[in-house]
Amino acid sequence: xxxxxxxxxxxxxxxxxxxxxxxxxxxxxxxxxxxxxxxxxxxxxxxxxxxxxxxxxxxxxxxxxxxxxxxxxxxxxxxxxxxxxxxxxxxxxxxxxxxxxxxxxxxxxxxxxxxxxxxxxxxxxxxxxxxxxxxxxxxxxxxxxxxxxxxxxxxxxxxxxxxxxxxxxxxxxxxxxxxxxxxxxxxxxxxxxxxxxxxxxxxxxxxxxxxxxxxxxxxxxxxxxxxxxxxxxxxx
Length: 236
What we know:
Elements: E1 9-13, H1 17-25, E2 29-33, H2 47-50, E3 51-53, E4 58-62, H3 63-72, E5 77-81, E6 97-99, E7 102-105, H4 112-120, E8 124-127, E9 138-141, E10 144-147, H5 150-158, E11 162-165, E12 185-189, E13 192-195, H6 205-214, E14 218-221, E15 234-235
Parallel strand pairs: 1-2, 4-5, 7-8, 10-11, 13-14
Antiparallel strand pairs: 1-15, 3-4, 6-7, 9-10, 12-13
């Protein structure tokens, strides 16, 4: 694997060794975060649950990792958020997608710190019923996404997003639940999208490939393991 990275670093859960090794091989420094004792095991180290990047210098992070991140990342302000915990909806306070001047989220459950940030910076809140918003969005650019979620697809098309709706249920998370395409992917260069497993095994592979090609993006993935929701990574 190799890529001309548009990001030099990312935040990722420490237990996802395969993904860390693959992203490192793509030239990205992986800043790891530890699991939270307040979350269910299958998501307790997911970066998209434990933190989110709101701007070029602000990261919101669960209080359990905020101090750790402040030591590792000096060029961002790390804003701690309390009481991120299972079960749902206590675990989705930071599971939001900042795209351009928009934030896509379930506004009922996001952290007050994020709501205040959006109001202060005139960021439009696009409201969805899906609490696991970021998990459900593979982001190609500020106006193009892939999702398994019917509600998100319908909503974002009404906001003039270009959306590819794919079938749910073909991303591994745990023995109990399946994962989501957003948590199994992330853009690693201007023209490359990383997927954490064999994308060819997804029944909508050809449609995904065509949609990526529309934006001159090629998939990068390991063909020797299944597509896995690892909570994605937060690019820096």
